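S1.2 Input.
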Amino acid sequence: MATIRKHGENWEATAYLGYDELGRQRKRTKTLPGELNKTAAMREAVVFERKLLKSGVRTRTDRTVADIIKYWWDNYGCQQSPTTQERNLQLIARINKLLGHIHVNKLKPKHIHLFIKALQGPNARADKRGPLSSRTIAMHFKLLSAIMNKAVRWELIDENPCSRVDPPKQRTKPQPIMQEQDLSQFLYLLLTEAPLKYQAFFMLAFTDGLRRSEICGLDEANVDFARGTLRVAVTGVFVDGKVIYRQETKTASSAQTMYIAPMTLDILKRYNAERVQKEQYFNMPHCTKFFTNVDGSPILPSTFTHWLHDFLKKHDLPKVNTQGFRKMAVTYAMQKVNLKEASQFARHSNIDTTAKYYAEVLQSRIATPTMYLNSLVEDAIKSRQ
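S1.3 Output.
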């Protein structure tokens, strides 16, 4: 229903045209002569509103980028995994700070370019102590583009302005792995010096290719010692300053039943017996999770990362992280199995992931193709002599 109000010497008529996709009321205003009495002004306002509704005229949207992001979050973003939500909220904070105030129908490629340049600034980090990595910058652009794509699909906007902007280049560093000699030394030292807890953790990471979160969530219910198998069903992740157990895996294929390497199985059995013995000694309730703090509370996944870095530094070994052991597992396995088998071992949902991120050539085998081709040339010459 149209309304009127006195605006200076004139009347201001407001026509209401329903609601937009975000639940905001659409309206148009018109100035009416001040000499009209209130009844006549109201009549004019009603006629104005009827004409607009009849012609199907819609008011120009005043939705901002921040509005679109909030709609995306409420209807999609909040349904993602806790770790993804935590990361996206950090990215969204920067996006809103730089672009949130802009009306979405006025968002142009030039705004995206300025946004990227701001992220590339020398002190763009939250603590103002340096630049963001190219990977982090690319993540901001990727998320913004994904949100705008959803908005197009949901008919909130007509097009995604990010589609007309070249994504920022990402300079990725290959994740380091140990070569044969260093790996051999590490494994020897691990199995002769390290506590059983860390032996079990890193053997599961290397011989079975488990992710850090999967090991932290490993439960007695998911390990069959008699058959020597395990099934990943729970992951332990760090979110909002605390460790939580998620009843889900990274991908559907991650949850398959897998064999435990015999040496790893033996270490896990001995570690479990040691763990139970400590519980009984300190009169603590039994915890079914293998990797916890002394009191049975969830252990910080970074505990193993810090221990590893200290252990490697102590023995003058090259620095790798916990994820590096999973990559080493796949890389070394691929020296004996084909790509499809390696992908199945890694429990990747897409074989391309294995080929792109895990198919690293060991230094000892770099010359193998060249030497093989050289032998073909030699054989060709010998066969003609």
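S1.4 Remarks. The chain has a mean pLDDT of 84.
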